[in-house]
Write a structure and sequence with these properties.
The structure holds 2 protein chains of 2 kinds. By secondary structure, chain A is an alpha+beta fold. Chain A has 8 helices and 14 strands. Chain A has helices at 30-76, 92-99, 114-122, 181-186, 208-221, 223-228, 260-275, 297-300, and strands at residues 82-86, 127-135, 139-146, 149-157, 161-168, 173-174, 189-191, 197-198, 201-202, 229-233, 240-244, 247-252, 281-285, 294-296. In chain A, the strands form 4 sheets. Chain A has a 6-stranded mixed beta sheet with strand order 7-10-11-12-13-14. By secondary structure, chain B is an alpha+beta fold. In chain B, helix 6 packs across helix 7, helix 6 packs across helix 8 (288-310) and helix 8 (288-310) crosses helix 9 (335-343). The model of chain B is unreliable at 383-389 (pLDDT under 50). The chains are: A alpha+beta, B alpha+beta. Chain A binds chain B through residues 1-4, 6-7, 9-16, 18-23, 27-29, 31-32, 35-36, 39, 42-43, 45-46, 50, and chain B through 51, 55-56, 59-60, 63, 86-88, 116-122, 124-127, 158, 160-161, 163, 166-167, 170-171, 174-177, 179-180, 183, 226, 228, 309-311, 395-396, 398-400.
Chain lengths: 301, 400
């Protein structure tokens, strides 16, 4: 192989890659020309579609911008004319005052933050759940599900002294707001428990599911007995001890089904004592199925 | 969804143009999906002499391949050959300067750049820099990184050609609105298919005999260490037959195909064959021995010229892997025997069986198959798509 020596006018080694690959139309064959035209048409179509998409997108953006501005404007012209409130004990005034909706300035329906209103209401221990909705054009709807008290408990407060708290079926302890005093006076007191506070709230009382069951069944099937109950003691859990006008201690056995049998036995004993004009009873033990030991007051002396 | 790219291997030969399409899937596997061929016009001894005629033929072959495969080509790998392809060794050396005398990546880069940086004449363009093994303190090493030594030498065989002629071939492809991804010397493309790894390691010579040009590549220790081309091919045999036996070139071509053999088989000088074999006016008997002798002499001459070009690389002990023939010229009867006689080592006709089956196993398709193999290697380096990622890139891909 002959060896090529670099000539005087040699340049730094050039690669075939430096050869320009751009091609002019006149050097194309007819087939290639057709292909090139077709390819350019496709490129043109691509860029046209791109431009259309961009312009369309920009227009759409501006339109939505207009819509949101219009909504804001419309929102400003939608003041609340009525507020519908559904609740049990909490009064309308209390709710409006608590939420700050009772001022002279009429709030804007669309400007209200419903989420924060709901959160504020649910901070109240008496409130179980809240539903808030806008009812266009001018109504705010608030539905409050409250806890149902089944018993009350006495507690010592540093600032207020002795206070009465309410307890619901789940054992949640709270200060009742807006309840009628007659309704509260009918509730029996809880005894034999120790209230604990955690971050400003009372901790739930355990074992309340049995108490709730007993009280609701007594209220339903033997209201005359229920009315005589003054205290329900949880000190001998799982047994429940009820202190009433009729007997100093009525001991109930916790059951998974219902308390009907025990209540029926108690009712019979009460009737029997009344019919024989006996004095009040010291202790009725309903935990022994068919045998019910009854201790009279005289016997305890 | 898998990513694929359709590449074409194109060989613009003196007698025919071959276009082979391959689909590279995920940059890893290659499926051969189409073949287009057309007779060649405007090409002489591997060089383009009529741009328009050559363009028409090449474009017809590309179109035929695309129609057969039912896909559009994404990139082209072009084989080059011809009278102007030349090569020279270029060497450089550096001293290992680090305290522990271990070769660093920077020193390898530096010596490689220096070796490849030799100046060329203004009209020349580099086609390949074929790297030979490095030498570290006169011992041959494949990867010198972190090896201990004092002097590192790098050596390349630089293959270059006439920039305008290479440009003509590229512009024909560009004329079909296609981009040439890589240009490969025909013998290198053929060698990547017909020569086994073992042959390349032992040292072998690949000769691609075309109609107008013959290319060659020498492999040693698994690498191509020398390659080149020369403007002699099958045409010259026909030409000599035509002059020596006084007949038209087409008649000589026909005789070569019918009775040509690279080593004289018939010793009886009186045995004759008919020129046209049609017993019409002008048909005449021709001595068979004369035909065979002319073909043998010309074929031997081709191999002898190559041997001379190879210099020390053509020595028997450096070609223990043998000689492998490819291209249309290799189809001449006993061409392998002729090569054995000249080089003194075993010779064989190349087989594309490792890459293709059926018609494509013939040696005339070695170059285009080799181009696809090059394409596969290139794509696995740069990635399957070679186009920008992202939504815009994908959209562009849809429209391009």
């Amino acid at each position: 192989m002959s060896r090529r020596e670099p000539s005087k006018n040699s340049i730094k080694s050039r690669s075939w890659k430096d050869i320009d690959q751009d091609v002019k139309a006149k050097s194309m064959s007819s087939t290639a020309l057709k292909r090139a035209i077709f390819c350019r048409c496709r490129k043109f179509a691509f860029y046209s579609i791109l431009v259309i998409v961009l312009v369309g997108g920009a227009k759409l953006f501006l339109m939505t911008e207009g819509v949101s501005t219009a909504l804001t404007r419309a929102g400003k012209s939608l003041p609340i004319k009525s507020i519908e409130i559904e609740s049990d004990a909490l009064s309308r005034e209390w709710v409006l005052n608590y939420l700050g909706l009772d001022g002279d300035e009429t709030p804007n329906l669309l400007g209200l933050d419903l989420g924060s209103l709901k959160e504020r209401l649910e901070l109240q221990p008496q409130v179980s759940s809240v539903k808030i909705a806008r009812q266009l054009p001018d109504t705010l709807y608030i539905a409050i599900q409250e806890r149902e008290p089944i018993a009350k408990v006495l507690a010592e407060d540093v600032e207020r002294g002795r206070i009465t708290l309410l307890v619901d079926r789940m054992g949640v302890v709270y200060e009742g707001i807006g309840y009628e005093s007659k309704r509260i006076s009918l509730l029996p007191f809880l005894d034999g428990i120790r209230l604990k506070r955690n971050e400003g709230q009372y901790e739930a009382i355990t074992g309340m599911q049995h108490v709730g069951k007993l009280l609701s069944e007594a209220f339903e099937i033997a209201p005359h007995i229920y009315r005589s109950w003054k205290v329900v003691s949880l000190e001998a859990l799982p047994k429940l001890i009820v202190k009433s006008n009729f007997a100093k201690e009525i001991i109930f056995e916790p059951v998974s089904t219902d308390y009907r049998r025990q209540l029926a036995e108690l009712d019979y004993i009460i009737d029997y004592h009344k019919s024989h004009s006996y004095k009040s009873i010291a202790k009725v033990d309903l935990t022994m199925n068919s045998q019910v030991p009854v201790t009279n007051v005289a016997m305890t002396r | 969804m898998y990513k694929s790219k359709v590449i074409a291997g194109i060989e613009i030969g003196t007698s025919k143009i071959s276009v082979l399409l391959g689909e590279i899937v995920e940059g890893r596997s290659l499926n051969i999906i189409g073949l287009g061929q057309s007779s060649s016009k405007g090409v002489l001894k591997g060089d383009i002499v009529d741009f328009h005629d050559a363009s028409d033929c090449v474009h017809a072959a590309i179109l035929s391949a695309e129609e057969q495969a039912g896909v559009k080509i994404d990139g082209v790998y072009l084989a080059v050959s011809g009278s102007d392809i030349e090569g020279f060794p270029s060497e450089a050396s550096v001293n290992v300067t680090s305290r522990d005398r271990r070769v660093s990546m920077e020193e390898i880069r530096q010596v490689s750049t220096m070796a490849k940086g030799r100046d060329l004449a203004e009209d020349r363009a580099v086609i390949h820099h074929l790297r030979r093994p490095y030498r570290l303190d006169n011992r041959s090493v494949e990867k010198p990184l972190n090896l201990e030594g004092e002097r590192l030498e790098a050596s390349y065989w630089t293959v270059h050609g006439n920039a305008r002629k290479i440009g003509d071939a590229i512009h024909i492809i560009n004329g079909f609105n296609l981009h040439v991804d890589d240009v490969v010397l025909s013998a290198l493309a053929a060698g990547s298919v017909v020569a086994s790894d073992e042959e390349k390691k032992n040292g072998c010579l690949v000769v691609d005999i075309g109609q107008g040009a013959t290319d060659f590549a020498v492999y040693q220790d698994g690498n191509c260490v020398m390659a080149g081309s020369m403007p002699i091919g099958g045409d010259h045999i026909s030409n000599d037959l035509s002059i020596g036996l006084r007949m038209r070139l087409s008649q000589a071509e026909s005789l070569k195909h019918r009775y040509g053999t690279a080593v004289v088989e018939h010793k009886n000088k009186t045995e004759k064959v008919w020129l046209n074999n049609d017993f019409e006016i002008g048909d005449r008997p021709i001595p068979l021995w004369s035909i065979e002798k002319i073909v043998e002499l010309r074929m031997s001459e081709i191999f002898e010229v190559i041997q001379k070009k190879l210099g020390t690389y053509g020595r028997r002990e450096r070609l223990s892997g043998g000689v492998i023939l490819s291209g249309g010229g290799a189809n001449l009867i006993r061409s392998d025997n002729c090569a054995e006689l000249v080089f003194g080592v075993p010779a064989r006709i190349g087989d594309n069986g490792t890459m293709a089956s059926g018609e494509l196993r013939e040696s005339q398709y070695s170059v285009v198959l080799g181009l696809l193999k090059y394409g596969l290697q290139y794509q696995s380096k740069v990635g399957p798509e070679g186009q920008p990622a992202g939504i815009i890139g994908k959209l562009k891909g849809l429209f391009n």
